[in-house]
Amino acid sequence: MTHTVLVTGVSRHIDARVASVLAADPEIGRVIGVDTAPPPSLSSDGGVPLGRTEFVRVDPRGPDIAKVISAADVDTVVHMSLVSAPPRSGGRALMKEQNVIGTMQLLGACQRSATVRRLVVRSTTAVYGSSPRDPAVFTEDAEPAEPPAHGYAKDACEVEGYVRGFTRRRRDVTVTTLRFANFMGPGVDSPLTRYFTQPVLPTALGFDPRLQFVHEDDAVEVLRRTATEDHPGTFNVAGDGVLLLSQCARRAGLVTVPVPSSAFQLMGELARGAGLVDFSPEQLRLMRHGRVVDTTALAAALGRRPAFSTAAAFDDFLRARDIAGGLPAALMDLLTRAVAR
Q: What is the distance between the alpha carbons of residues 256 and 250, in angstroms, rounded to a whole number?
């Protein structure tokens, strides 16, 4: 039996890689990639080759996604289109619409479908929040000490709630929710990777958070496995081990500039407003308190550990990036203004 797989969010790097890998699988008859904008590989910007993936331009907030699923007899849906930062136009309101309303529309289409039998949802470990009262390690059934109250993390919590409701209504569908740690690797462009490309790292005075990363290759492999095999449940996904922020800085050969927490938060707000680095509120909390998750459940389900540890994933990212140079004038100005206040 050949499968028809629908992948959302294919205009982004890792999402496109997942579509490409699935399209190369001879057991899969069709791969349909949907997004609000064409992938870079379909334009002059290069990007990940999509192979035989068929691209369909769809607004996730509208009813067209249901038409695509119905017309193609889709049996597997890989939902990856949650965005972690507000778009330049539309801001936070549009981001929430894309994340939450878009997911609701997709789940509604899956619920009405007679052919969908497997659903994979990309979530984030940010659903656990970051708090000084957190446990040392989060398992999948742990409750956050301080549930996320805004931004991407709050959207992900809402999305997971709707996914659980769908699971109860469609018990015939295998549903897998994957909570990924921060992606890391040569092709990853995120608020955190942009933070580590600054030649000098501002840090919160008195804090040295524990961080976990998942290499993009491991992320793609986990998504491929769960899209082609039945692994119901919710799973944390991260590379083995942890790195302190200070260790990250030393591995990168970067100088840190510790500033008081109030100034660190203000600097983040200024940097975000200036478009230099997206220091969202949840990112600022992560940079103070860190977050570590347990991944034994996923290792048991898939029968493998990640190929890259957290440290190896970070090292691979560093090898692919040129982060040498002096402190940019714009960042120096922000540091000066933040400390002065």
A: 9
- pTM greater than 0.70: yes
- The Cα 27–Cα 15 span in angstroms is 20
Total residue length of the chain: 341
Measured CA to CA in angstroms, residue 47 lies from 5, 39, 44, 85, 193 at distances of: 21, 7, 9, 21, 18
Taking CA 229 as the corner, what is the angle to CA 65 and CA 66, rounded to the nearest 5 degrees?
10
Query: How far apart are alpha carbons 304 and 182 in whole angstroms?
Result: 20
* 99: DSSP letter: I
Structural Rg of the chain based on CA atoms: 20
H runs (alpha helix) in the chain: 13-23, 64-72, 91-96, 102-112, 151-169, 191-196, 216-228, 245-252, 261-274, 281-289, 296-302, 310-320, 329-340
DSSP 8-state secondary structure symbol assigned to residue 42: G
Distance CA 105, CA 98 (A): 10
The tens digit of pLDDT for each residue in 262-310 reads: 777 676 666 555 555 556 778 889 999 999 999 999 999 999 999 999 9
Q: Which helix (H) or strand (E) holds 76?
A: strand 76-79
Nearest alpha carbon to residue 193 among 314, 76, 339:
314
Task: State the CB neighbour count (10 A cutoff) for residue 118.
Answer: 23
Collect all residues with Cβ–Cβ distance below 8 Å to 269 and sequence separation of at least 6: 279
Confirm if 118 and 181 have CB atoms less than 8 A apart: no
Which of left, alpha, beta for 241 (phi over 0: left; psi -120 to 50: alpha)? left
* pLDDT tens by residue, 66-110: 999 999 999 999 999 888 877 766 678 888 988 999 999 999 999
CA distance 62 to 78: 18
Q: What is the largest CA-CA distance in the chain?
A: 66
Give the tokens for residue 39. 């992938």
> Which ranges of the chain have pLDDT less than 70?
1, 41-47, 88-90, 265, 267-279, 322-341
Return d(Cα 183, Cα 93) in angstroms, integer: 25
